[in-house]
Structures are given as C-alpha cells and as structure tokens.
C-alpha cells in the first residue's frame, strides 16, 4: 500500500535508471545507518520485518527496491519516519516536473501500482506526497495503515476508498478526503475508467 534530486527534471531512460540506482543505494545506506545506531543485527531486523537476512543485506547494499508498506514498517521498527529513510533533499524549494518523480511500488508485488514521489525526503521532513495512476488491470491493493494522516484528492476518474471498519467512500474528480492513517484502508477504482489521484501523508516526529 512505495522514494530525488533537489530538482527533478525530465530525463531519458538511461538517466532514469541511474537515478533509480542512486535512490536504492541512498535508502539502503539510511537503513544501515539507523539499524547500526540501534545496535540491531541484520538478522534481528529481518526477523522483526518478516523477511530474510539476505533481503536486508541486499537492501542496505542498494541491490533491492522497497515497497511503500515495507518502507513504512521499516521506519516504525527503526524508530523513524518513512521520510527519514529517504534520500535527503536539502533545498528549501523542490520542483518535480510532470512525468518525473521516483517510483515506488505500492505493495510487495512486482505488478503493484507504482506511484511517483513528489515531495522532498530526508530526516525532519513530515510531508510525503505521491501521484497514483490506478487502472483496471492493477491487482487489488492490500490493506494499509500508518501513523499520521492521509489527504486524498481525485484529479480525474473515480476512486473508491475502503476502510476495514466503516463504509467505503466514493470520490469523483475534484473530491477530497482526509482521514487518520491508522485506520486500515485501501484504494480501488470506482468505475471502469482509470483514476489519477494525489495522496498526501504527514508524519509525527
């Protein structure tokens, strides 16, 4: 249920692949640094996360990508926020051009949606925004929860937001929804047409 240079410009496939490699390396370095600060071994962290120790090794070496749910869970286990594990953007102003933004899988599956990260990362950042394009062919999203709040804005199409406790909410173009992130939730299409959606999360420190 996901992470950027100070200024994100249009880039070709070669540069895009390089930036993805840089992103994985920077996330891995942040995970390793925080794990070592806490005195955790790779085996201990892997057991808490429910993955193999080799996955943690590959992640820390920048050889494995990470999904949004796993990023959120890792941040929780390491006593930080998801932004605290993302590459640091020190600039006070960040421009993310249309079609750019680091892609992160929305679930722990290769066929999951790949929202684009639109905001700055790094320690001390409390805001995280993603652009989602949800299509009919996408598999159902997993139930997801996290600290902080979610702000959902539908740019086009129709979105259905389901809650594990409570009635689903149907949203159309221009509709917005604000809800607590610790309520298990998931997103899906409200019609046969694709939906373009902006999701903004904030995190407490």
In short:
The protein is an alpha+beta fold and about 200 residues long. The chain is about 25% helix and about 25% strand. The longest helix has 25 residues, at about 15-35.
What is the strand and helix layout of this fold?
Blueprint: E1 7-8, H1 13-37, H2 42-49, H3 53-60, H4 68-77, E2 95-96, E3 116-117, E4 127-134, E5 149-156, E6 159-163, E7 169-171, E8 176-180, E9 185-189, E10 195-202
Parallel strand pairs: 1-2
Antiparallel strand pairs: 3-4, 4-10, 5-8, 5-10, 6-7, 6-9
What string, H for helix and E for strand, traces the elements in order? EHHHHEEEEEEEEE
Strand portion: 15-25%
Strand element count: 10
> Please, how many helices?
4
Helix content: 10-25%
Tertiary shape: globular
- Summing up helix and strand content along with how strands pair, one would put the structural category as alpha+beta
Mean pLDDT: 85
Amino- and carboxy-terminal Cα gap: 21 Å
Radius of gyration: 17 Å
Give start-end ranges of low-pLDDT stretches.
1-16
Question: Mind explaining what this structure looks like?
Answer:
The N terminus is likely disordered. The strands form 3 sheets. A 5-stranded antiparallel β-sheet has the order 3-4-10-5-8, with no helix packed on it. The chain has a 3-stranded antiparallel β-sheet with strand order 7-6-9, with no helix packed on it. Helix content is 25%, strand content 23%. A hairpin with a 5-residue loop joins strand 6 and strand 7. With 205 residues, it is an alpha+beta fold.
Name a few traits of the molecule.
205 residues, 4 helices, globular, five-stranded antiparallel sheet
């Amino acid at each position: 249920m996901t992470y950027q240079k100070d200024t994100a410009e249009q880039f070709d496939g070669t540069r895009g692949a390089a930036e993805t490699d840089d992103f994985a390396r920077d996330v891995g370095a942040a995970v390793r640094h925080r794990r070592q600060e806490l005195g955790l071994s790779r085996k201990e962290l892997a057991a808490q996360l429910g993955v193999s120790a080799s996955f943690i090794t590959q992640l820390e070496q920048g050889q494995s990508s990470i999904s949004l749910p796993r990023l959120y869970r890792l941040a929780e286990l390491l006593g930080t926020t998801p932004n605290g594990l993302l590459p640091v953007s020190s600039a006070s102003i960040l421009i993310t051009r249309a079609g750019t933004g680091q892609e992160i899988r929305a679930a722990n599956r290769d066929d999951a949606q790949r929202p684009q990260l639109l905001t700055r990362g790094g320690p001390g950042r409390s805001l995280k925004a993603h652009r989602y394009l949800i299509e009919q062919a996408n598999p159902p999203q997993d139930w997801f929860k996290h600290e902080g709040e979610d702000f959902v804005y539908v740019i086009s199409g129709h979105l259905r937001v389901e809650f594990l406790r409570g009635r689903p909410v149907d949203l159309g173009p221009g509709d917005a929804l604000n809800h607590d992130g610790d309520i298990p939730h998931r997103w899906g299409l409200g019609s046969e047409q694709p939906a373009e959606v902006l999701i903004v999360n904030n995190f407490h420190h």
